[in-house]
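Hey all, quick one. A colleague (J.T.) asked me to put the S-adenosylmethionine job into the tracker so the inputs and the structure tokens live in one place instead of scattered across chat threads. No bug as far as I know, just bookkeeping. Sequence used:
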Amino acid sequence: MSDKDHWDQVYSINPTEKLGWYEPHLQISLDWIKGLGLPSDAPIIDVGGGASTLVDDLLDAGYRLVSVLDLSDHALTSVKTRLGKRAGLVTWLTGDITAIDMPMHYYELWHDRAVFHFLTRPEQQQTYRDNLLKALNPGGHVIIGTFAPEAPPKCSGLPVRRYSPEQLESTFGREFELQRHHKTLHITPSGVEQMYLYCHFRKKILSRCRRDVEGGSG
Ligand SMILES: C[S@@+](CC[C@H](N)C(=O)[O-])C[C@H]1O[C@@H](n2cnc3c(N)ncnc32)[C@H](O)[C@@H]1O
């Protein structure tokens, strides 16, 4: 079964509130996002947003340029239905974050809760990082939640890679600067404990290229 089939099946079989990662509101994400003080027209993307209510809460908070990307049409359709007319205010992107073509330096905030950790192969992590680097404006923010080392080795029946802040920092590389991190225990609707690691990174504004700095006319 392809990853897309897996996720479409998960969302078509289960009510949203029964999904292992379900939370009525992604409160940590929301608090951290609001704390950034971004203007209401800052482009924001929720990568692998699934059926989460983050998009509803971002619209309520007044953000006007929100995009939600997911592999699963089923997940996005259920959110569009929930939002009703407000769905028209959101940009919906169906695709694989390791393969989709992203705009250059567009987003001010990239949010990912429980998506990156499914990318267990180094080449998948690399293509995700390449897309992040391309799509995020210099100085832009990344808020990411993954399983922490003490979390179970699987999520939704799929293997995951678990991260410490240092491991996530080294996977994202020197173009990103870790601003803060925080662990929080999530308990699934069926009672399983999952420790999450949340990190806030900022994409560095790199200095001009060496030739410019050295005054070369080239
Ligand atoms: C565990 S769920 C988390 C959903 C949501 N972020 C939340 O916190 O409620 C993982 C989500 O990532 C999506 N996903 C998995 N792999 C993906 C990929 N390669 N590209 C885009 N979305 C992906 C799935 O369809 C699913 O909605």
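Adding what we noticed when we looked at it: Residues 3, 7, 21, 48-50, 52, 69-72, 75, 96-98, 113-115, 118, 155-156 surround S-adenosylmethionine (CB under 6 Å). Confidence is low (pLDDT under 50) at residues 212-218.
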